[in-house]
Amino acid sequence: MSAARVHVIVNPKAAGGRTAKRWPKILNALTEKFGPITYSFTEARGDGTAKTRSALREGADFLIVVGGDGTFSECVNGFFEGGAPVNPSAQMAFITSGTGCDIRRAHDWPQVKDFAAMIDLIASGTTRPIDIGHIAMRDHMGNPTDRYFANAASFGVGGAVSHAVNTSHLAKKFGGTFAFLFHALREAMRFENQRVRIQIDENFDEEFEIILAVAALGPYFGGGLKIAPDASPTDGLFDFLIGHDITKKEIPGLISRVYSGKHINDPKVKMLRGRKLVATPLSASGKILMEVDGESPGALPATFTILPSALQIRG
Predict the structure, then answer these.
(1) For the whole model, what pTM was predicted?
(2) What does the pLDDT look like over 269-289, one tens digit per residue?
(3) Where are the alpha helices (DSSP H) in the chain?
(4) 3-125 and 132-308 share one CATH topology?
(5) What is the rounded distance in angstroms from the CA atom of residue 102 to the CA atom of residue 87?
(6) In this structure, which CATH number among 3.90.550.10, 3.40.50.460, 3.40.50.10330, 3.90.1720.10 belongs to the domain 3-125?
(7) In angstroms, rounded to a whole number, what is the distance separating the alpha carbons of residues 284 and 194?
(8) Beta bridge mates, 9
(9) Cβ atoms of residues 297 and 137 within 8 Å
(10) Which of 113, 143, 156, 311 has the greatest number of beta carbons closer than 10 A?
């Protein structure tokens, strides 16, 4: 692959600003493996998507992302436009430098600090296709919008949690797992179950009083919580979790069991697999917020669709 066609997108603010400090060493290591490269920095939310599309249109066919899960997710969205790939033959790689690291865990990539090992893995040229999720939903103004995701998307209390995590400083001080756990417990204790009709493929149609529903491509969620233990980003299926009719007394114990994945044995947690989920709100009061790879871009109604083997990943 020509070095001139390799472009790196860096989020210098990822990991509480530590990515900016790591970048000179990462750049040297990348240059040693690939020769001269081009790179750009994100400056605001959404930049990863715009810069990815721009690089692909300008001829890059191998994009390396340096940042956290949110940056990776933004760049995944940049690989698609108008429902189609910008460059179907383009490849992507990820050097994790963030706080959540759920995507790294899902793919069993090296630890954040061992970026040299990840660069070696990327340079080996091993490529595989991974599944990508797509959501058609409503934005916060009620207008139709859509989003692609690389790890997990949810509705219910997850939208409130992601908003709280993204507007607090806990993740920078104590890490993503602590921040998610703190806000998950606090928001869940405030949350009132909401009635939703859930249809999966053509063989499941039920109504639930939900606290949380998740469409997972990978096992981990919220900075290391094992929300869908058997999920795989390469099997062509979502693992769906539906948490329903859960009382406030039951919330702390249920959250504690998510670390080990034992929550899936709870009778109020339903696990299903499928390629498509349609969620229709039935509650009269309040929006049911979405969470998509850690962001909160909209609300129900929503349709989740899996795109099998939609993106080529190196590493």
Answers:
(1) 0.92
(2) 999 999 999 999 998 777 899
(3) 18-34, 47-57, 69-78, 102-107, 115-123, 157-166, 170-174, 176-190, 251-258
(4) no
(5) 26
(6) 3.40.50.10330
(7) 9
(8) 40, 65
(9) yes
(10) 156
